[in-house]
Backbone:
């Protein structure tokens, strides 16, 4: 193997290795840094929250992890099909295939993750077709089932997303992403911009799906209440760097870094 080969070895004991191992991930914009030398491991079935004020680098980091942004340096090692691969070095077609099959991305604005001119059922069905489903009856049955799981009535299956409320659009985006049972889900402020009552309903839904499906999740949020409800572990970012990390309750109840203390006490507007 060469230094530019994304395939870096064979998994000998998948249960003993992280699902994702990130080392030295760095992305700069002009004179500023989106993220700088970020390293962490994500374990199967774990939910990792990334928090910090606007401009802290958390969204840039998520984009680099999900393959939407190419980092300047660093590695993102992912265990798939008995192999360990560096997704940063993956050819673009392989990365797109990974994003359609084993990965999923839930956008803050559901319009970024939905086909607005396609029916609700068609949005869910497209994801199934991307992984090889071809039987129309089975696809429609799965779409109907998933609409029910995200609390969208079956008789709305042929309605287009533009006819849905913001909360329903977000739930539809979640159904579209999870219908194929991805191993790793990236979430960018999934409850952002929603009314408090709609947020609470969506959070309950997400908690149940993550638990029932055993999902591994990396979630970016500015809302520490969302982080506490969903994340097993937290990373706090400031100026592109991780300044504190640990178990969620530990970080939020006994923050060590001065910046984290300000976040928790709501002195900073995040």
Residues:
């Amino acid at each position: 193997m060469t230094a530019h080969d994304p395939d870096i070895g064979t998994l000998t004991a998948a249960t003993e290795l992280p699902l994702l191992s990130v080392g030295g991930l760095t992305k700069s914009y002009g004179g500023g840094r989106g993220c700088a030398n970020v390293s962490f491991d994500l374990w199967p079935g774990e939910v990792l929250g990334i928090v910090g004020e606007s401009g802290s680098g958390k969204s840039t980091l998520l984009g680099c992890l999900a393959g939407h942004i190419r980092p300047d340096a660093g590695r993102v090692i992912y265990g798939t099909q008995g192999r360990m691969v560096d997704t940063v070095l993956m050819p673009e077609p392989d990365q797109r295939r990974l994003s359609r099959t084993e990965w999923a991305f839930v956008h803050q604005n559901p319009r970024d993750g939905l086909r607005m001119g396609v029916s609700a059922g068609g949005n869910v069905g497209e994801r199934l077709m991307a992984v090889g489903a071809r039987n129309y009856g089975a696809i429609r049955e799965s779409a109907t089932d998933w609409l029910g799981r995200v609390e969208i009535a079956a008789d709305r299956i042929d309605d287009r997303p533009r006819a849905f409320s913001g909360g329903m659009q977000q739930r539809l985006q979640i159904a579209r992403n999870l219908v194929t049972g991805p191993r790793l889900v990236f979430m960018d402020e999934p409850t952002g911009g929603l009314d408090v009552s709609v947020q609470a309903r969506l959070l309950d839904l997400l908690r149940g799906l993550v638990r029932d499906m055993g999902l591994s999740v990396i979630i970016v949020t500015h809302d520490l209440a969302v982080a506490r409800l969903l994340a097993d572990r937290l990373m706090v970012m400031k100026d592109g760097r991780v300044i504190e990390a640990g178990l969620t309750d530990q970080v939020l109840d006994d923050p060590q870094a001065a910046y984290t203390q300000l976040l928790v006490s709501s002195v900073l507007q995040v």
